[in-house]
Amino acid sequence: MGKRNRAALLPTNIPQLQNLIKRDPLSYKEEFLQQLRHFESSRAIFELKPEELSTDFQDLINFIAQVSPCYPEETKEFPDQIIALLSKHYQILNAELRRTMVQALVLLRNREMISSTALLSLFFTLFRCRDKVLRDILYNHIVNDIKTSNQKAKNNKMNKTLQGFMYTMLTSAEGAAGTGSENAIAAKRSLDVCIELYRKNIWNDAKTVNVIAHACFSPVTKIMVTALQFFLGNNEDDGDSEDEEELPDIKAMQHKQNVSKKTKAKSKQMDKMVASLKKKQRSKKKAETFNFSALHLLNDPQGFTEKLYTHLAGSRERHEVQLMLMNLISRIIGVHKLTILAFYPYLQKRLQPTQKDVTQIIAITAQASHDLIPPDVIEPVIQTLANNFVTEHCAAEVMAAGLNGIREIVSRCPLAMEATLLHDLTEYKNHRDKGVMMASRSLIGLFREINPELLKKKDRGRAAAMNMRDMQPSKYGESNNDGDLEGLQLLAENPDENGEGDNWDEWEEASEDEDEEEQGGWINVSDDEADLNIKLSDDEDSGSEDEDGNKKPKTKRLSANKERRLKKKGLLPKDEEETVKEEDEETKAKRAQMMAERKEKMAAAQLLATTKILTPADFAKIEALKLQRQADQKLNPVRSGSGKRPNPADAEAQAEGEVSIGSIIGPRKKAKQDYAERMESIKNGREGRDKFGSRKGSTERGSSTNKEKAKGKNFMMIAHKREVREKKKMSLREKQVALHAHIKKQKMMKH
Questions:
Q1: Which segments carry the region annotation Disordered (predicted)?
Q2: Helices 78-89 and 116-126, axial angle in degrees (round to 10)
Q3: DSSP class of residue 716?
C-alpha cells in the first residue's frame, strides 16, 4: 500500500522523482515523459504572459536539466527551447526565473550538451540585464568556460568568434547615453572578460589587445578608464587564483598522522594533498610562456597614439582621466620610439610648480623622450623646466624635482642639452639642501658618461677627461648596434654544454655550415685578429696591492695643473715623472685591454649570428640570462657618478619604459609631523606600558590591604576591636560629621 501511494505522489513530488530517475532511469521513463509533456504545456502558457513568475515552470526547468543526461534523445530540444525563451524575453522575465534558466544552461554546458559558441553568445547578450547577481554568474561562467576550452589546445575557431562578438558589444556602447544604459553595462562586462582572459594568459594575442585598445576611445568614461588601466598596469601577472594558492604542508600532515589516531578519512586526505602537490610540480616543469607587454602587440602604434592625442586635446574629462591618457601616450611613445611633435607643447603648458600632480607630469614628459625626437622640440621643454623649477625663489623640493626631471629627459635625449644651461645647472652641486645637491651631482655624473665635453673642465673628473679622446658623442639619428647583439653576447659567453639549445621540440634544424663548406662559400676573415689575441696581465690593475695581496703605501699625487706647471719649469722630481709615466702606461694598457675584450665579444656575437639558426630554446635561454644579469646587478649594485646607489624599483620601472615618481622627487628629509601624527605616535609608544599615575585603589596588584580584608570579615571577628566599640558610642552629630568628611574625600579622590 505504501509503494502504491508513493507511485501516486510521484507526479507532484518532483525532487523524489528526480532522485529515483538518477538511480534507475529505465524504470521511471514513463513518469519522466509525463513531466516532459507537462513542461511543454507550461511553456506554451508561459509565453502568453512571460513577465509573471511561475514556480511550477521553474521547478520543471530544474528537474529536466538535472535528469537530461539520463534521457539524451528525449531532451535534445530542451536547451534550444530555453535559449529561445531567454533570447526573446530576457528583458521582461522575472529575475528569479531568469536566473534559474541561466543556471540550467550552465549545468547542461558543463555536461557537454550545448555548444560553447551558441551559449556564450547568448550570455554576452544577457549582460544587458539590470541584475548584478546574474551578471556575476555570467562573468564567472564565461571566463571558466573559455579557460576550459583552451586548456589542452587553443580553440582558435571559438576564440575568433567570441572576440568578434565582444568587438560588436564594445561598438554598440559608442552611441550609449551615459554609463547606466544597457549597452554600456554589457560593453563594460565584455571588456572585463577580455582583460581577465588576457591576464590569465588564455587570450594573449594581438587581436585581444586591439579589441581592448578600441575601448580607449569609448564615450563612456568607465569603459575608457578600464582600458587605460589595462595598458598602464602590470599585465604580466597571472591572475589565476589556483596558481596563487599556497602549497599544502606535507610534513605537518605526516607528523599529525603519526601522532594522532589513524583513520581512513585522514589517509584519503593525505593522498589527496600528495596528488595535488605532484600535479602542481608537473605544471611548473612545463615550458614557460613569455607574456609580452600589451603595448608591443598594438597593430598600428603611431595611428593609435595620434588618435589618443586627438582625443586628449579635445577631452573635457576630469583631471585624473586626462593624466591617464597622457601617461599612456608617453608610454607608447617611449616603447615604440614614435614621433608626436604636438604632444610636447601640450605638456610644456602644464609644467608649472602650482600644477596639480606636477611630478607625475614631469615623469610623463621624461617617458615621452627618446633619441629620435628632434632636439629642438625637447629644448623648449628643458628650458621651461629650468625657468619654472630651478630658480632660487623656488622651494628646495621644487628645485630637486626640476633637476631630476631634466636629468631623466636628457638621459633619453642627450642632444637637447645646451652647454650654457648645463653650466648653470651644475652650479647647484654645492647647494645647502641635500636633495638639490644630489640632483645636480647626478646630472654631472650623467654627462661624464655620455658627453663630458659639455661640462666645465673642473667638473669632468679624471676618468672622463682621459677618455674624452676615445669618446665620440652620438649624433642625431645614429643607431647603436650594441643593444641588438646584447642577447647574442650573453649566449656566446654561456655556451650550452649539454646541447639543450638545439632542441626544436619536434622541429628540424637545417645546418648551413655543411652546405657552405661543400660549395666553397663563406670564409670568415677577421681584420682585428691581432687585436682579438691581445692578452694583458691584470697584476698592475690599480697599483694599490702587490703580488701577495698586501696594500702598498699611498704616494702623494699632484694635481694635473700643478704637474704641468712644474714640468714646464723643470721642477718636477724624477720619481714623480716616473710615476706619471707609469700611470699613463697603465691607463693606456687598461684601455687597450677593454677595447680588445669588447671587440672579442662583438666578434663572437656576430659569428654566432651568421653561423647558427637560433632555436626556441636559445631565445628562452637569452631571456633567462638577461633576468639573471638583472638579478646580479640588484644584488651587487654599482655606484653611479653621483655616488648614489640605484634603486631596484626604479630600475624595474625603467626596464618597462616607465619613469617612477620617486626618481623625480629624489631623496628628501623626513617631513615634520603634524599634531594628529604626533598623538598617534605617542599612543603607539604607550602600548604595553603601565598607566601613568597613582596605583591607589587599583585592583591590579598582588593582594589587598588589611582595611579591605576587614570589610569582608564576619562581624563577630571584629566586634572586640576598639574602632568598632567606639563607633557604637558615636552621637548623631559625630556620625553626620564623619559622613560629610567621607563624602568630601570621595569627591576629591575622583579628581
A1: 461-597, 629-715
A2: 20
A3: H
The count of C-alpha atoms lying within 13 angstroms of the C-alpha of 266, restricted to the half-sphere facing its C-beta, is 13
What cell does 652 get?
624595474
The DSSP symbol for 551 reads: B
Dist. CA 15–CA 21, nearest whole Å: 10
**Three-class DSSP category at 689:** coil
All residues at 6 or more sequence positions from 455 whose CB lies less than 8 Å from its CB, including other chains? 422, 423, 426, 444, 447, 448, 464
CB atoms closer than 10 angstroms to residue 441: 22
Distance CA(574)–CA(558), nearest Å, equals 13
pLDDT of residue 348: 93
CB 211 within 8 A of CB 163: yes
Residue-wise pLDDT for 495-537, tens only, equals 664 444 444 444 444 444 444 444 444 445 444 444 434 333 3
Contact indicator for 408, 659 with CB cutoff of 8 Å: yes
Distance CA 579, CA 540 (A): 13
- Write down how long the chain is: 751
Measured CA to CA, the distance from residue 126 to residue 134 in angstroms comes to 9
Alpha-carbon distance of 241 to 251, in angstroms, equals: 24
Place of cell 587605460: 228
* Cell 607643447 sits on residue: 345
What's the CA dihedral at 373, 375, 377, 382 to 10 degrees? 120
Amino acid identity, position 477: G
Residue 195, C-beta contacts closer than 8 angstroms, at least 6 positions apart? 212, 226, 230
Output the CA torsion 106→110→116→122 (10° steps).
0
The dihedral built from the CA positions of residue 368, 374, 378 and 380, taken in this order, carries a sign that is negative
Please tell me the predicted confidence (pLDDT) of residue 699: 64
**Residue owning grid cell 565584455:** 190
Cβ of 26: how many Cβ atoms within 10 Å?
Answer: 7
Contact 197, 154 (CB under 8 A): no
Query: Which residues neighbour 218 within 8 Å (Cβ) at sequence distance 6 or greater?
Result: 170, 173, 174, 187, 224, 227
What are the backbone angles phi and psi of residue 528, rounded to the nearest 5°? -100, 35
Residue 396 cell numbers, joined: 628646495
The Cα angle at residue 545 between residues 542 and 547, in degrees rounded to 5: 115
Q: What are the residues facing 551 on neighbouring strands?
A: 545
* pLDDT band with cut points at 50, 70 and 90 for residue 572: low
Q: How far apart are CA 348 and CA 328, in angstroms?
A: 17
202 three-state secondary structure: coil
> Across residues 673-702, what is the average pLDDT?
76
Burial of 138: CB neighbours in 10 Å, binned 0-12, 13-18, 19+? buried
CB-side neighbour CA atoms (13 Å) of 579? 15
Residue 175, classed as helix, strand or coil, is coil
Q: Which DSSP symbol is given to 299?
A: S
pLDDT band at 655 (very low <50, low <70, confident <90, very high): very low
148 three-class SS: helix
**121 within 8 A of 165, measured Cβ to Cβ:** yes
CB 625 within 8 A of CB 494: yes
Q: What pLDDT, on a 0 to 100 scale, did the predictor assign at position 519?
A: 43
pLDDT at 405: 94
